[in-house]
C-alpha cells in the first residue's frame, strides 16, 4: 500500500509536468512558427482539436517512457544524484524521439526554429519533471533518516558475522531505514551470538512464512562462504517476491572480485541481489522480438507446415499435433505444442524421456527431430506468451519434482519464461534422464545469471548452426 501511494505520487506529478509542457510547447510553436501574438495564440487553443488530443496523449507518451525504463520500479531509497541522472537520460531520449516523429515536419520560418523547438521541449520537460521529483525524493529520504519511514528487515544468520552485521545496521539506524524485526537461525549447531541482542523468529526453513507474517521488505543474509548453501533458499524467495530486497553481507573475496557496489557513503556496503534478470527496457525489447520473429517464422514456415502435416498423417494414425503440459513462468502450467513424432499412446505406461533408437518414434518423426521441425509450432506458444524464443526448456512437473529433490535451485528457472532454445540446449542438447537434466541445468543457471539481448542473439545463431550442421543431441 505504501509503495502504491508513493508510485501514484510520482505518476501524478509526471502527468502534470507533461501536461504543462504540452501547453507550453503548443503555445510556443504557434508564437514562433506562425508569428501569432500572445492573444491570438490563446484564442487558437480553444479552436484546435489537436491541442486537446495532445493534452491526453502527450502525458501517456511520457508515462510509457518512464515505465519502460523502470523508473517506477523503485520508488523508495532513491538518491538525488540517481534521480538527476535518470530523469536527464529519459527526458533527453524521449524528447529526441518525440521531436523526430511529431515536430520535424512542422512548417517553420527558418531551420533555427527546429532547434528552438527541441531546446524548449527538452528544457521544459526536464525541469517540470525533475523539480517535483527532487522535492518528493528529498522529503521521503528525510522521513527515512528521521525514522518516520522504515522497512522491516530480517537478518539471516546468528554467528559472529551476523552479530557484527546487526551492530553495524543498528549504528546506522534510523537513517538507514531498516527496522530490524529479528533473525533466523541457519544451523542449530552454530553458536547463537544474537540470542541476547535480538528476537529469534524462527529457522531458515520458515523464511517464507516469516516474511509474509511480518511484512518483511528486506532480508540481510549474514553467513560465511562455507554456509552459502543456505543462499539458495533466499534466492528462491527473491524469485517469488519481486518487491523483496535481498542483501548479502560481503566478505573479503567479494571486495576483491568487485561484487560490492553501493550508492551511499553513510550505510554499510551490501551486495544486493536483483530479482529482475533483465532491465525493464531489455525485457520489452526481448518480448517485442519474440513476437516479431515468431510472426515472421510462422509466415515463412507455412509451406513447411503443410509438408509436415501431410507427413505426420501418413506416418502413423493419430492427431497431427501433440499437446503436453509443461511448467512455465512462475510455475504456471501450459500446453506446449509440437508436431507428433511418436506413435499414439507412447507414454501409456507413464512419463518417459526419449533416447537414441527410441522405438516409440516414427520414421517421419525421427527426421523431424533431427532438424528440430517438430518444435516449430512452439512459435504459437511464444505469441501466446507461454514461452520466449530463448530461455530454459520447460519440463513436466513429474521431472521437476525429481530435479528439485537434488537441486532445489532449479526453481530459479521458473523466474523467467521458458524458451524454444536455450544455452543448455546449445551446450548439452536433449536430456535422456534426470542426471543429464541436472548436467544441463548448470548451463541454464549460467544463462539466467548472464541474461542479455546480446546473449539471446548468440544462442539463436548457434541454434541455427547446430540445426544446419545436424549436430547436437
| Dominant shape | flat
Question: What is the H/E order?
Answer: HHHHHEHEEHEHEHEHHEEHHEHEHHH
Main sheet overview: 6 strands, mixed
Number of strands: 10
Average pLDDT across residues? 83
Q: Domain count, please report it.
A: 3
Number of helices: 17
Structural class label: alpha/beta
Gap between N and C termini, in Å?
50 Å
Measured as a percent range, the helix fraction is 40-55%
Strand order of the largest sheet: 3-2-1-4-5-6
**Proportion of beta-strand residues:** 5-15%
Uncertain residue ranges = 254-260
Radius of gyration: 28 Å
Question: Can you walk me through this structure?
Answer:
By secondary structure, this protein is α/β, with parallel strands linked by helices. It folds into three domains: 144 residues, no CATH class; 123 residues, 3-Layer(aba) Sandwich (Rossmann fold), CATH 3.40.50; 190 residues, no CATH class. Helices cover 53% and strands 10% of the residues. It contains 17 helices and ten strands. It has a six-stranded mixed beta sheet, with helices on both faces. A two-stranded antiparallel sheet has the order 7-8. Strand 9, helix 14 and strand 10 form a beta-alpha-beta unit. Helix 1 packs antiparallel against helix 5 and helix 10 packs across helix 13. It is flat. About 1% of the residues have low confidence.
